[in-house]
Design goal:
- With 263 residues, the chain is α+β, with helices and mostly antiparallel strands.
- The protein folds into two domains: 65 residues, Orthogonal Bundle (434 Repressor (Amino-terminal Domain)); 178 residues, 2-Layer Sandwich (Beta-Lactamase).
- The chain contains 13 helices and five strands.
- A five-stranded antiparallel β-sheet has the order 2-1-5-4-3.
- α1 packs across α3, α2 packs across α3 and α10 packs antiparallel against α11.
- It comes from Micromonospora musae.
Length: 263
């Protein structure tokens, strides 16, 4: 990242956010000419200005560190291992939340949608799926979209896969993460997956319910679930800012009965 021009990074992120140079400059309190010089590499921004721009573009903490490094400054936000002692209390709290959510599936995922924590109900859903299919650690995109994973058991696969592919496309484009790009290119070769270039424009299917449900066959019974995705609102650590908690809930009484019985 140190070889990249911070101006290019700012311009790219501003474009992704669909913000004009004029509006962003006035919003952060500098002249459009100054912002233009920063983006063109004619003026080196201070660390404070970089962070002000990043805040107004809602840039994740990991990318804020990248901007600082690209401009020759030290990273501002620490990245602590979730399994380390510093985050032990937070890790235990998230795990307690997931365990309390049982018998409904719940998991914590990082920015690549790798599972970091899960409860027993979530582990029951993927029981029997080979490790080489799920990935190490288990990756939600791989597990849900692979033909030997949950794809063959998903009764509304066209609708559910479209939702996941749009999420993967946005994540790969926004972060420019090589691992996500590689994963996207691999998934594009799997059966029943549309061409990679179409993912961002996959239509959202019209459904009768308020939210799109995931209809999954489990042991000869069909489950229907919707999910709630949440993040830390006050994270100042890169690891926690990348972490999301996804909780699945039964979309009908039959699913609730099945999940409670299987627990």
């Amino acid at each position: 990242m140190t070889a990249a021009k911070v101006g290019d990074l700012i311009r790219r992120q501003r474009g992704l956010a669909r913000r004009s140079q004029l509006d962003l400059a006035y919003e952060i309190g500098i002249s459009p000419r100054h912002l233009s010089f920063v983006e063109l590499g004619k003026s080196k921004p201070s660390a404070g200005l970089l962070m002000k721009i990043a805040q107004h573009l809602d840039l994740p903490l990991r990318e804020r560190n990248d901007w600082l490094l690209a401009a020759g400054y030290a990273p501002r936000y620490p990245e602590t291992s979730l399994s380390g002692p510093e985050l032990s209390r937070i890790r235990a709290s998230v795990q307690a939340l997931l365990d309390t959510h049982d018998p409904y599936p719940g998991l914590a995922i990082d920015r690549q949608w790798n599972v970091q924590l899960s409860n027993r109900a979530a582990r029951r859903l993927v029981a029997g799926i080979p490790e080489q299919v799920r990935g190490v650690p288990t990756n939600i995109f791989r597990t849900a979209l692979h033909p030997d994973g949950l794809a063959g058991r998903t009764r509304n696969f066209p609708q559910w896969s479209a939702y996941l592919l749009r999420r993967l496309d946005r994540a790969a484009v926004r972060t420019q993460d090589p691992s996500l790009t590689e994963l996207a290119e691999e998934i594009a070769t799997w059966p029943a997956i549309p061409e990679r270039r179409t993912w961002s424009n996959l239509p959202s299917e019209k459904v009768d319910d308020p939210v799109l449900s995931w209809r999954l066959e489990l042991g000869g019974e069909e489950l229907s679930m919707f999910s709630l995705l949440s993040t830390f609102g006050t994270a100042v650590d890169v690891t926690l800012s990348d972490l999301s908690v996804e909780l699945f809930f039964p979309a009908d009484e039959q699913t609730e009965t099945i999940l409670r019985r299987r627990a």
